[in-house]
Amino acid sequence: MQEEKEFIQELLNPKTQNQAFEKLLKEYQKPLYNHIRNIVLNHDDSDDVLQNTFVKVFQYLKNFKGESKLFSWMYRIATNEALTFLNQKAKKNGVSCETLQNKTIDNLKADIYFDGNEIQIKLQKAIVSLPEKQQLVFKMKYFEELKYEEISEILGTSVGALKASYHHAVKKIEALVTIN
Amino acid sequence: MKTFKLENEPKIESGFRTPENYFEDFSAKVLQQLPKNEPKVISIFYKRKTWMYSAAAVIILALTIPVYNNYYSNSSEIDTPSLENYIAYHTSVSDADLVNLLDEKDIQEMSVDLNIEDNIIEDELSENKNLEQYLLN
After folding, report:
1. Does A149 share its domain with A172?
2. What CATH number corresponds to the domain at position A77?
3. What residues of chain A lie within 8 A of the CB of B3, using their CB?
4. CB pairs below 8 Å between A and B: how many?
5. Which residue of A2, A100, A104, A168 has the fewest CB atoms within a 10 Å radius of its CB?
6. Would residue A41 be called left, alpha or beta, if left means φ above 0 and alpha means ψ between -120 and 50 degrees?
7. Are residues A104 and A129 in the same domain?
8. Which member of A47, A116, A174 has the closest CB to residue B15?
9. Can you give the pLDDT at residue A92?
10. How far is Cα B39 from Cα A84, in angstroms, rounded to an integer?
11. Containing structural domain, residue A141
């Protein structure tokens, strides 16, 4: 925690800022990219959202109170950016988020940055039919392999509630994949 | 149909890939986009604006002064100079009328004003030699 405080100081000091931010990018770009990609599904959109996320992180660093960890704070920004992006895209196309996501999944097979097989597509389709919160919890736990404690800090939900959410999500997904 | 169980399956990866060297290029791209900490430039128009606002305020104040004066001069009380002018040019009041208006007390007060001591009159008469002429006439 002390180390993190020092790192934040480095990020805020104009002299060390650039170097520190480069370090931050190197450390977090991959996990944050995966997190965003799991939400928006397509690479180009993820790229946009990830850029916005880092620019926002840079802009709001001076307001970062250190009440939560830098890690969860950044994940929270990325989650919000990704969800806002999805909602805006759906609105622009005049469809619901679920319809938009289904369309994106149908296009995954042709996506050069996706090399999954039938089961992966089925799994994605099943996930999209879940409520938003369950989708997030499932993706963060199953694909990103985050700990419940970490997810709890990011989403501001208790560990117990997260476990219940994940359990429901798994049950529904298994049922849907079995039918299809 | 075989029931699908996530825990029985080998771990299913998301299958998402990124273009080659994506992350190497990404850092550079973001670093370029960051807002630079340049010294703040305050536009000259910003300062000019303040002056324009002050000037506008002064002009408005100046314009309201006649209105303000007008408002008060419309009051029912007549000011002293107007009253004096009226009496001087439009009156038919004669000196006799004015004398009649004076009562005993007024006359007494006036006599007090004229009560000059005798020795001052004498001094004045002795110093002013021209007076003799007046006296002779």
Report:
1. yes
2. 1.10.1740.10
3. 174, 178
4. 80
5. A2
6. left
7. no
8. A116
9. 92
10. 33
11. 116-180
Q: Give the contacts of B66 (CB within 8 A, at least 6 positions apart).
A: none
Residues 6 or more apart in contact with residue A119 via CB below 8 angstroms:
A177, B9, B12
- Cβ–Cβ below 8 Å for A38 and B16: yes
Mean pLDDT, chain A, as a whole number? 91
- pTM (two decimals): 0.66
CB contact under 8 A, B35 and A178: no
Q: What is the mean pLDDT of residues A137-141?
A: 95
| Domain identity same for A2 and A42 | yes
* Residue A25 with chain B: CB contacts under 8 Å: 26-27, 30-31
Q: What is the pLDDT of residue A12?
A: 86
Model pLDDT for residues B25-43, shown as the tens digit of each residue? 998 888 888 876 555 556 6
CATH number at residue A165: 1.10.10.10
Domain count, chain A: 2
The DSSP call for residue A109 is: T
Residues A107 and A174 in one domain: no
Mutation test of the interface with chain B: which of A43, A141, A171, A173, choosing the one with the most B Cβ atoms within 10 A?
A43
**Contacts (Cβ under 8 Å, ≥6 apart) of B87:** B93
**Which residues in chain B touch residue A22, judged by CB atoms under 8 angstroms apart?**
27, 31
